[in-house]
Amino acid sequence: MKRFSAKLFGKKSEKHPEKSANQLFDRDGSHARRRVKSTVGRQERHPMEGYNPIDSYQTAENYDQFHVRGDEQDTVNFLKELANGGSALELAIGTGRIALPLFECGITVDGIDFSKAMVEKLKCKKNGNKLNVIVDDYKNVNICKKYNLIYIVFNTLFNLLTQDEQIECFENVSNHLLEGGCFVVEGGMPTEFCNLPNNQYVRLEGLTMKKAYLDVAIYDPVSQILDETHIGLSSEGTRLGQIVTRYAWPSELDLMAKIAGLKLVNRYSDWKKSPMKSNSSNCISVYKKIIAQPVYAPEPSAR
């Protein structure tokens, strides 16, 4: 926590002792400039060096408690339409937040997840044992089956931390799609990170009489990596949960899709199919596997 101490948690400015170093607003409500320069964003080594995604804050123990978004039914309706009665594959299926209700709509759903604990929690739920789930790396696992629909939601594609890994995922998806099948990718827009003071932020996520939840992050606009720590503070102590993501712009996703033989057919800002706007914070892209056109050899000319 040392790297965040003075810069992010309210050390008084020498020039302006009445204001904290990271105060964002003056008393009249106007935006205030930062009073103390931070060196956090200029670290030479990766801030989350040694990060292991299996140990991230999205643990099986509390995943369902903290990750109900309220748009689950809209998501299921959207995916059911694209599956068109065929089979579907969810990458990073987790505890079945989307896969189980989609299965209950009559869609055959398979899944992949690298977390054995998440899959075990899924299996304990109603109909969980009816889903075929593989514990493996979704970016390159090989399955002897092809699907009408493959989907990955909730920023999970961005858990792959290099462009090469994300391209590898697109190519693997293409190999497992039927011709004309769809790949759906949901991911947040990097826009919100572009104008951060010193490429960092501290946000209050929740506050009660007994607990406070903070989100602390640094964004590297060159690598597009967001290093993030979720902090829980209470009388019982402090709990830290790390997550690292590599955000990608929609245009970059489209190029990855093109490399993999997929074509963008639709893009929305939510699961209700609202159009994308300049201030949209979420992006849902629908790619279709290009149907190979038959190649006809020219008939030999008569002599």
Describe it.
By secondary structure, this protein is of the alpha/beta class. It has a domain at 63-189 and 249-289: Rossmann fold. 18% of the residues lie in helices and 28% in strands. The protein has 7 helices and 11 strands. It has a 7-stranded mixed β-sheet with strand order 3-2-1-4-5-11-10, sandwiched between helices. Strands 6-7-8-9 form a 4-stranded antiparallel β-sheet, with no helix packed on it. Mean pLDDT is 84; it is low at 1-45.
Brief sketch in words of this structure:
With 303 residues, this protein is of the alpha/beta class. Helix content is 18%, strand content 28%. The protein has a domain at 63-189 and 249-289: Vaccinia Virus protein VP39 (Rossmann fold, 3-Layer(aba) Sandwich), CATH 3.40.50.
Show the helix and strand layout.
Blueprint: H1 5-8, H2 63-66, H3 72-83, E1 87-91, H4 99-103, E2 108-113, H5 116-123, E3 132-135, E4 147-152, H6 163-175, E5 177-188, E6 200-207, E7 211-220, E8 225-234, E9 237-246, H7 250-259, E10 262-268, E11 282-289
Parallel strand pairs: 1-2, 1-4, 2-3, 4-5
Antiparallel strand pairs: 5-11, 6-7, 7-8, 8-9, 10-11
CATH topology of the domain at 63-189 and 249-289: Rossmann fold
The top-level CATH class of the domain at 63-189 and 249-289 is Alpha Beta
| Uncertain stretches | 1-45
CATH superfamily of the domain at 63-189 and 249-289: Vaccinia Virus protein VP39
The biggest beta sheet is recorded as: 7 strands, mixed
Q: Distance between termini?
A: 83 Å
Q: Helix tally?
A: 7
The number of strands is: 11
Named CATH architecture of the domain at 63-189 and 249-289: 3-Layer(aba) Sandwich
How much helicity do the residues have?
A: 10-25%
Strand order of the largest sheet: 3-2-1-4-5-11-10
